[in-house]
Amino acid sequence: MEEKSITHYRSSHQILLVGEGDFSFSLCLARAFGTAKNMVATSLDSRESLMMKYGDALRNLTELESLGCTILHEVDVHTMAQHYFLCTMKFDRVIFNFPHAGFVGRESDTHQIALHKHLVGGFFSNAKFLLSSLGGGGEIHITHKTTHPYTMWDIKNLANSEDLVLVGEEGFSQYLYPGYNNKRGAGVLCDQSFRLGACSTFKFRNGSIIPPCLFEFI
């Protein structure tokens, strides 16, 4: 089958997407590839919650499933390395777009920033166990705003503390991903988009050999 690509992603990649909102980013990739058999797309929400929160969720999920995507719900990035299904796999790309810990204050509040950093740190500490070591090694991609106060999340140092090495940073443009609709994800405006402004996709690789999967079958 002819390889197809969109920005950093190819149909030959095994791709894991976490923290999906209405699954429109996953669907954008699947449409570009003409298949989603190489993709696992996950959400923290249950399927029922998604139906309530996002008007396009059911349509997006249905199309993804028809393209062969594996869809998992109620996947927590803090524990995903031990997930019964994900633990059995390795990925060339692990993607988390615009992580957010929820709204408990203003984005500039110290406590709010601490919650965001806890979320991202937990993601890094789990994602590194799911990366492929073949073909030069898999990559973790996290897309994030690059203006204040979002720079206070200190994503590069969070990654470094997990022995992850920055291998690239590229400006993110929503226009490169037709059909992708970023979502607030929480509150009464959960189905509304938020202004992106300046943001980048940060790419990380493992800086050392990672132990095998942590999950133990009973």
From TrEMBL:
Pfam families cross-referenced by the UniProt entry: BMT5-like
PANTHER family: PHENYLALANYL-TRNA SYNTHETASE (PTHR11538), PROTEIN, PUTATIVE (DUF2431)-RELATED (PTHR11538:SF89)
Ranges of residues in domain 25S rRNA (uridine-N(3))-methyltransferase BMT5-like: 16-184
Protein name in the entry: 25S rRNA (uridine-N(3))-methyltransferase BMT5-like domain-containing protein
Organism phylogeny: Eukaryota, Viridiplantae, Streptophyta, Embryophyta, Tracheophyta
Highest taxon of source: Eukaryota
GO CC terms of this entry: cytoplasm
Species: Psophocarpus tetragonolobus
Gene Ontology MF annotations: rRNA (uridine-N3-)-methyltransferase activity
